[in-house]
Design brief:
Order of helices and strands: EEHHHHEHH
Structural class: mainly alpha
Number of domains: 2
Strand content: 5-15%
Shape: elongated
Length: 146
């Protein structure tokens, strides 16, 4: 690519990024921010809670329908209610366990980065080597060179 040696362009996690700052400095800031996220950010488990709640709701409907000796057609039609009710109940329980603040007050502040712009592959291929960072950012936001 023509942008491999550009001073304001760097690659991170398989993607090309551009910033007004020096590429090496921006990459260092982004790595520091991602390291902080990996170490301190609270792991969100909402999808696990919804899945467990939905399965539990369906199981409860099936158990009640079978135990009560109801017509299978009736309690099979009620399965979506069990699915939804279980998922909602699990979401409420998950919300109760997760603190409203995503980080504790004793944690250090999250590192900041200079404004970064993702460079689409079509812009990276078509951009001339002598393009300025401002031009690359403008082209990346538009999605094409020109």
């Amino acid at each position: 690519m023509a942008l491999d040696n550009h001073p304001n362009v760097f690659r991170f996690e398989g993607r090309t990024w551009v910033s007004e700052a020096e590429g090496g400095e921006a990459l260092k800031q982004l790595r520091a921010q991602r390291a902080w996220d990996a170490e301190n950010a609270k792991l969100q488990r909402w999808w696990v809670a919804l899945a467990i709640g939905a399965v539990a709701g369906v199981a409860a409907v099936l158990a009640i329908g079978t135990t009560a000796g109801l017509d299978p057609t009736l309690y099979l039609l009620v399965l979506p209610l069990g699915f939804g009710g279980g998922a909602i109940l699990a979401a409420l329980i998950n919300k109760r366990f997760n603190a409203p603040d995503p980080r504790h007050a004793s944690l250090p502040d999250r590192p900041t980065t200079v404004p970064l712009t993702l460079v689409p592959s079509r812009v990276a291929k078509a951009a001339p080597e002598h393009a300025t960072a401002t031009e690359l950012i403008e082209w990346s936001n538009r999605g094409f060179v020109g």
